[in-house]
Amino acid sequence: MIFRWNEYREKDMVEVLDAEAVEQIFYTKLPLEDEEVYFNHSIDNPAAIQEFTDFLGQYKVKKIGVRDFSSSYPDEQFSFDLVYTDERNTIPSLIERNILLNEHDQYEITNGPVDYQWLQEFLEKHE
């Protein structure tokens, strides 16, 4: 019962993604030029990764179940994969307005929506 409470309590998005240990971010920049290459860009600059982590740190999430998602805002999605200092990779994740899909879990962003314009500007700046 304690495990279930801990699993479904509100958390920082940084905690859920373990974003403090990230050393590289792979992401999808649309439009895709090659359907075979899903993550077609990456960021490995430590200052840029810290800026991204600080951005995620302003959001709180609460697990609402397993991945059962249909897009309400397909034009406001950010797909990414994080590489960690100990060489772990996440299963591809996605942020869309008020939803975070991470591994097999779906989270509601409780203080969303995510500032998609900030994400676009950040990616353009670090492309």
Q: Shape from CA axes?
A: globular
- The appropriate CATH architecture is Sandwich
For the termini, the CA-CA separation is 45 Å
What is the share of helical residues? 25-40%
Order of helices and strands: HEHEEHEEEEEH
Mean pLDDT: 86
How many distinct beta strands?
8
What name is given to the CATH topology?
A: Immunoglobulin-like
Beta-strand percentage?
25-35%
Q: Main β-sheet, in a few words?
A: 8 strands, antiparallel
**Count of separate DSSP helical elements:** 4
For the record, the count of structural domains works out to 1
Poorly predicted spans? none
Tell me the radius of gyration: 14 Å
* CATH class type: Mainly Beta
Structural class: alpha+beta
Write out the strand line-up for the largest beta sheet, numbering strands in chain order. 1-4-8-7-6-5-2-3
